[in-house]
Every structure is written in C-alpha cells, then in structure tokens.
Specification:
Helices cover about 40% and strands about 20% of the residues. The chain is built from 17 helices and 13 strands.
Length: about 400
C-alpha cells in the first residue's frame, strides 16, 4: 500500500475572501501551517517552522510578484514553491525559471492542485510505501522501548516523519523517554466515535525532528477503552499520515496484539544475553507462528551485548534463537539510562556505541546517509525489508 502524510504548506498573497484560497484550504492532502502577505514573514517562517514546511503556495496575480519566488528559494531553500496565477505563458515560464516547482492556473481546479502537489512531492522523493515495525521485548527491561524510541529519533533527525504508538497500555514509557506528557492518548481517542483523521492528528504529541507519539492511557482504568476494532482504525489512519509507524508492544498474545501484527512489515524481537531471554524469544516465536505471522517478517536483535568476545558470544547465542538474529546492540547501559532519566534519546550522543547501530538502521531505511548506504550489507537491510535474509 502506498500512503502519504499530509503535506505541510504555507500560503502567500491570498485575500481572505479569495475563492482560490478556499479551494486550497479544503484540499485533503495538505495541512496549512501559516499565511502571510508580506515577504518579511519569510524570515519568521524559516526560524519558527524551518524544514517543517514542505511547500509554499504563492498567489502570482501579477508579474511584480515574481521576485517573491527568488526571495523564498533563498530564505527557505529546502521547500518547494507552487505558484497559482493567471494562465499567462510568459508569467508561467518566468516563474519556472526562477525555481517554481509547479504552476496551477486560476481559477483553481482542486484536481489540478492535487496533481501539482503530487508531482512536487515526487520531485522531492516523498512518495513512499508505509512501513510498520512492531518491536517486542522478551521481558520488562529488555530495552525494546529504548530501541523503538531511538530508532524513531534517528529517522526523524534524518528528515523522515515517524510516529510511535505506545501499545504497552499499562506501563508504557514512550512519552517518558521523550520527556513529554500527553493530554490526549490512544484511549481518549478510542472513546470517541467514529475515529477519523482529524481526531487522530489532534491526539498525537508532535515533537521536534519529525517525531509524533500516540501515548498510552494516562489512567489505568482507560485501557479497556482500546478495543481491537478501534485500534485497527487508528493504525490504518496512521498508515496514511506517516511513512514509518513504529509500535512498541508489551505483549502479543491477545486481540490487540494480533491487530498490530497483522499488517506489520517487520517484527523485531529484542532480547538480551541470557538463557531466560532466549527462551522467552522462542516462546514469542511460537505465538507468532500460531497467529499466522509470516516468519520471513520476523527478526531478532541482541541488546546490551557485552564487548568481550562479542562476535563469538553473539554467534553462539544467536544459534539458539529460532529466527534470524542479525546483529547485537553493544552494551551502553549507563549512557542510555542517563539519557532516559534526562528525557534525551541516547542516539543524541553521537559518540555512543548505541548510536552507531541505530543510525545504521535509519540510514539504510531512508538512504539519506551515503556513507552508511554504501557500507557492507547487514542485518539492518534485512530488518527493514531492503535485502532478503539468507537462510
């Protein structure tokens, strides 16, 4: 399934009663962040919104406004400009030469504008196949939530929009990991009926660096409001809003777990270097098998691996796990715990051992980091479905 998040746009030069403005506002593939009628606003947009802006839609009602495009592309070089104006061939050619990505004639046909936005997104490389990654720990304290949140932080830092769903309804720690609180949660969302895109968007905690959170219930009594039917609707909507959906799961044996797993592209089991953890991983695998999950979607990672004889210990431990185990995350417990206590992701410490592993996942997935992209292929490619694992 190919799904796109809403494009975030700013509008320039539209009168409040302009019917063309109304057509733009009503389009269901965009979210309007701000409007302005003076170029002095561009600096404010750059400082306040920055890379959050995908496009600026400019009303070129006469040729004197062509200079606006030059100013925009200079102050906001990463955003694309879509011009709206009279079907004047000279005006169109001039606008395109100045860096305009698309031109839509007035009066606006909503379908023409929709096509222009889709074309501009393709130019930006923003057409994606939504990936859902379910992360399951073999026990409390295995580090599954840390890996989920760190992966999201790294993906976001590299420019990808990602949402984390905290499906540990009783004791989930996703919001705590990012040092934030949630007024609206998965439970408060499920209380409402029917659930739609606007409700889902308003229930998210939007953080810097392209990360959003759908938090676990604030009150323990509310966990029963999250039903399998409502959860499926919410997850399906999130698939249309984000290219990456990460679900941090506490348990898999139950209807909520089945709903989360049924459309997962990859399932990552996080275990530690202990006999009990390996046994629990194999128990999880049995449940996944009975649930009908495709075994090719399941991988494991050994977290907090000790450095001494790491390679040999990794190979021996991996041999007891009944699914592919592609790598280990080096033990960096003190750094990770200190980061969590301060509400800062460990991956923000660019020198940490954990950052190297998490960064490689994000780099291989997005293709942004050329050095990582050209590195030898490993477990991260397989984890994210880019390379088929060899059995």
């Amino acid at each position: 399934m190919v799904a796109s998040r809403l494009s975030k746009v700013c509008l320039f030069g539209f009168e409040p009663d302009d019917p063309n403005r109304a057509h733009i506002q009503d389009l269901d593939v965009i979210s309007v962040l701000d409007e302005a009628d003076s170029p002095s606003s561009f600096g404010d947009w750059a400082q306040r919104l920055g890379d959050e802006i995908d496009f600026v839609i400019v009303h070129l009602d006469h040729r004197d406004k062509l200079a606006i495009i030059e100013q925009l592309t200079s102050i906001l070089p990463r955003c694309r400009v879509i011009a709206v104006g009279p079907p004047d061939s000279t005006l169109i050619v001039s606008a395109m030469r100045l860096g305009c990505a698309q031109f839509v004639p007035v009066p606006i046909d909503p379908e023409d504008l929709r096509s222009a936005i889709a074309s501009a997104k393709t130019d930006r490389g923003e057409t994606w196949e939504t990936k859902r990654l379910c992360v399951i720990g073999t026990s409390g304290g295995s580090g599954a939530t840390t890996i989920s949140c760190s992966l999201a932080a790294e993906l976001g830092a590299q420019g990808s929009s990602v949402v984390i769903v905290d499906l540990d309804l009783e004791f989930g720690g996703v919001a705590c990991a990012f040092d934030c609180s949630a007024e609206h949660t998965l439970a408060s969302l499920c209380i409402k009926a029917p659930v739609d895109k606007d409700m889902v968007r308003s229930s998210l905690v939007d953080l810097p660096d392209n990360i959003s959170i759908l938090a676990r219930p604030n009150d323990m009594e509310q966990i029963y409001e999250v039903t399998p039917e409502k959860l499926k609707v919410v997850l399906d909507i999130l698939n249309t809003l984000f290219p990456y959906v990460i679900i941090d799961m506490s348990r898999i044996n139950g209807e909520l777990g089945r709903v989360a797993l049924q459309d997962a592209d990859r399932i990552l089991i996080v275990l530690q270097s202990s006999v009990m953890s390996v046994r629990n991983a194999n128990r999880i695998l049995k449940i996944l098998n009975k649930t009908g999950v495709d075994p090719d979607k399941i991988e494991a990672v050994i977290n907090r691996s000790q450095s001494k004889d790491a390679h040999g210990a990794f190979k021996e431990l991996a041999s007891y796990v009944k699914c592919p185990v592609y790598t280990r995350v080096p033990n960096d417990y003190s750094q990770v715990q200190s980061s969590l206590d301060r509400g800062v992701m460990a991956v923000s410490n660019k020198g940490s051992q954990m950052h190297a592993a998490i960064r490689e996942i994000a780099a291989r997935l997005t293709g942004i980091d050329i050095q990582a992209k050209n590195a030898p292929h490993g477990w991260l490619d397989r984890l994210l479905g880019l390379i088929k694992p060899a059995h």
